[in-house]
Amino acid sequence: MSSQPKLHELLPHKAPMILLDTLIDVGDLHVHCQATSSESSLFFDKSINGIPGWVGIELMAQSVAAWSGYQASKENKAPPIGFLLGSRRYKCDAPSFPRGTLLDVRANRVMESNGMAVFACTIEQGGKEIASAQLNAYVPSEEKLQQMLKGTPQ
Hints:
Layout: H1 7-10, E1 22-26, E2 30-36, E3 50-52, H2 56-73, E4 83-92, E5 96-98, E6 102-113, E7 116-125, E8 128-138, H3 142-150
Antiparallel strand pairs: 1-2, 2-6, 3-5, 4-8, 6-7, 7-8
């Protein structure tokens, strides 16, 4: 069994924007990461003693980014820059993720074509699903990314 890359090696993010703590499992069609709500989180809100529930979308998006980084690592490439295009049906049964809460964040690829992908995502606490959404993401080719950064017409 080959060793799995470390989470920070798969993300194009840098601290303090990395919200996930651990990569549990990743494969061709899925990723499972964990995060613990703590005061060190960029989005920790002392007034609610936790992370607001809407941050779940970013947790899901970072899990998708970890999946994308893993796919690139199989070809000895750096984690690509991707874009969250949108989410559908984000449902979160928790107004916040209280301090100390261990969250299991999962994303399953539904489809992928020409850099566009759709993922079914969930967040679980203690084995119970507390949030779900469908995320749409785009990873442009290096050429397209450079055109976008330069503002060159497509």
